[in-house]
Amino acid sequence: MINRLTTRKGTLTRGIVLLPLVAAALGPPIMRPVRAQDAQSVHQRSRTTVFTILGAILGGAAGLAIAKGSQSSGRHGCLGAPCVVVGSALIGAGVGFAIGHESDRVNASRYRGVAPLRATSISADLAGDPSTLDASDSAVAVGGSAGVQVFPTNGRLQLAHVRAQGLNGIIAVGIAPDGWMAVGSPEGLYMFPPGTGPGALVRPGSVSAVATDQRRVYVAVDNRVEVVPQSDDTTRDWPGLALSSPARALVLDSARALVWATTDRALFGLRADGDSLARVAMVPLEAAGLRIALSGDTVAVALGELGVRLFDISNAAAPRAVGSWTIAHFAYDVSIDKNRLFVAAGPEGVYVIDIGVSPMRTIGLARSLGFATALASRRGYTYILDRRGVVLRRVLSDF
Fold first, then answer.
1. Same domain, yes or no, for 279 and 235?
2. Domain membership flag for residue 117
3. Is residue 282 part of a domain?
4. Which of 66, 102, 281, 301 has the fewest CB atoms within 10 Å, i.e. the most exposed one?
5. Are residues 83 and 128 in the same domain?
6. Which residues lie across from 139 on neighbouring strands?
7. Residue 75 binned pLDDT confidence (cut-offs 50, 70, 90)
8. Cα–Cα distances in Å, from 247 out to 189, 213, 266, 274?
């Protein structure tokens, strides 16, 4: 009798112990890597549901074994098969529910309530401590303590050459369509000719941002945005415009012949006025605009802890706020490719948002892209600076 009771208890114990082990072997559905188009279906399959069902099955099986043992000994009542099986299934379901609920809670905290995304990337190792990047149609440049490391965009990511070695504290890099490179640092703005050759200091002072076109470089120094001829190699005072507070980020709007600038307080639209600049628009921001991205009629501004703000600039003189996104703990940088907004969220990875629908929809989070602090999207690809792995990553923008 004691042996039978011990056996029945052992069966039930083994069922409960095996519950998390079997579930782990099957793999938690919500954590399985998925493609972006599968995100909605993944959200519907929670661990709580799976673990509850699995617990009920294992509990019922353990109860059936106990009931069979009690029938062979001639005992009935509460040890009859229906009573024991139902009771054991309920106990198993309760245990499974508790395990699954806690697992879902941890997972929701890790993924901020959005679906995990699989992002297959091509990567290239970087030297030093990289901090910023820019991309053109033909090259990607990563600036940092080791200078500016340049990679061609065609084929594999292979280092082509390094510029600005020995320049301390590189903050900003801009690649012009014809290959000229603007490099900003606390020492000033340096211009480097295409291919090889030494750079020239053309504007002393601490540079926070640069943007380039075919003929000019727009540079942010303190609260001024100035215009520098691209091939100039002399240092002098350059014409420009003073803003209300220090400029933080610049992006060129070729379609409207504008430069968009962010400060600690506002988004500005600036237009060339002779060899200087004139203000054509200003929209207040709730926080410092750390980075800015442009695609078509949409401007996205990374606001750190306040997430991302989107503006419709179809009327350049009166930009209109059209949306905000606040899921990430901190938005370091943004880029846009067609209807996809990419947000570099530091240790969380890269969030992908569909801005082609209203309201915008978060497609998911790609944690595998590392500690993402800088982004650039160009010609169907998005480039990510992964500070954890000290690598440059490239993914298809529609992965």
1. yes
2. no
3. yes
4. 102
5. no
6. 152
7. low
8. 15, 19, 9, 21
Q: How far is CA 340 from the centre of its chain?
A: 12
Three-state DSSP class for residue 103: helix
Instruction: Name the domain boundary from 79, 111, 143.
Output: 111
Q: What is the pLDDT of residue 112?
A: 65
Q: Which one-letter amino acid corresponds to residue 333?
A: D
| pLDDT reading at 335 higher than 80 | yes
Q: Supply the pLDDT for residue 175.
A: 96
Grouping H, G, I as helix, E, B as strand and the rest as coil, residue 380 is: coil
Res 37: pLDDT = 35
pLDDT of residue 187: 95
CATH number for 383: 2.130.10.10
Query: Is there a contact between 350 and 309 (Cβ–Cβ < 8 Å)?
Result: no
Residue whose structure tokens are 């053109």: 136
Distances (CA, A) of 160 to 147, 195, 357: 13, 10, 39
Q: What is the dihedral of CA 152, 156, 159, 160, to 10 degrees?
A: -40
Give the distance from CA 1 to its chain's centroid: 62
Mark whether 148 and 98 lie in a shared domain: no
Count: domains in the chain:
2
156 and 51 in a common domain = no
Q: Is residue 287 part of a domain?
A: yes
**Do 278 and 356 belong to one domain?**
yes
Q: Which tens digit of pLDDT belongs to each residue from 271-315?
A: 999 999 999 999 999 999 999 999 999 999 999 999 999 999 999
**What single letter denotes the amino acid at residue 60?**
G
Domain identity same for 149 and 106: no
**Hey, what are 343's tokens?**
């947000």
Q: DSSP strand E in 254-296: where?
A: 258-263, 266-273, 276-284, 291-295
What's residue 36's pLDDT? Answer: 36
Per-residue pLDDT tens digits for 82-116: 776 676 767 877 887 877 666 665 555 555 679 99
The answer as to whether 33 is a domain residue is yes
CA–CA distances in Å: residue 354 to residues 37, 295, 300, 342: 11, 13, 13, 9
Q: Mean of the pLDDT values across residues 108-126?
A: 84
> What is the pairing mode between strands 291-295 and 276-284?
unpaired
pLDDT of residue 342: 98
d(CA 65, CA 84): 9
Q: Among the three residues 111, 131, 162, which one is the final residue of a domain in this structure?
A: 111
Domain coverage including residue 350: 122-396
**DSSP-derived 3-state class of residue 101:** helix
The residue with tokens 């379609």 is: 255
